[in-house]
Amino acid sequence: MVALTLPAAAAPKRVMSLNVCTDQLAMALAGPDQLTSVSFLAGDPDLSVMHKEASAYSKNRGLAEEVFLAQPDMVVTGTYSLHNTTALLKRLDFQVEEFPFTQTLESIPADIRRMGEILGREGRAERMATEFERELQSAENAACEPVPTAIAYDQNGVALGAGTLADSVLKAAGFRNLAAESGIHGMAPFPLELLVSLKPDVVIVPRSLSDAPSLADQIPRHPAIGALKESRIGTFVPRASWACGGPFTIEAVRALRTLRKDVAPCAEKTSALR
What we know:
Layout: E1 15-17, H1 20-29, E2 35-39, E3 58-60, H2 64-70, E4 74-78, H3 83-91, E5 96-99, H4 108-119, H5 122-141, E6 149-152, E7 158-160, H6 165-172, E8 176-177, H7 178-181, E9 187-189, H8 192-198, E10 202-204, H9 223-226, E11 232-234, H10 250-263
């Protein structure tokens, strides 16, 4: 009996991305002229590491009407995008692939591989995912004592706790996340008084929006935080590197690993007494 092998599905020639996180995965992996449109948020430097690359693409606002007019072969989007758009596109028989919002570093390689498979760029995706995994393993192997404390303290006094990508990055870089240890799950208000009393080794604050000053920026820059003389206070994390999960998120791990070595160098291991 002769075994019949079905041909692999052809890679889509025209792809639209409707979500800032899928925008960046698609831009990193797509072939020439394969990606035809990305979301308007792809050009925002506070949300997209690849904001410069995004200038080469037309922009969309995630509306079904835009997709219908463009008639792409494939649509990639996020589960947190406009749900009515996704449902309507599926009813109109568009091919739509949804990606969940990444919450852990460990899930990023799978997202890279999946986008590579969707775009027919498996080889490039495998190399990218493997390198990401290799560097994550390197960070894990470098774990040591003492473990310094840190908190990501955002606008309006919101902290990034357990179950966030920031929490996963902090742990990989060798920090204890004080927000998670204080019972914060996800993004939630964190009392300024509690932060000051805990005296974290590192306080990660957002970049100020110099072109649009806001009262929301004042809380993470409160004088009480500035008075923590033993704490390192700054942005530290490369811009937008943990706003979405992608190959670029490793840059946040690298930056914080460097900071961790400076804040709390690894203790020398002593040989066991014989």
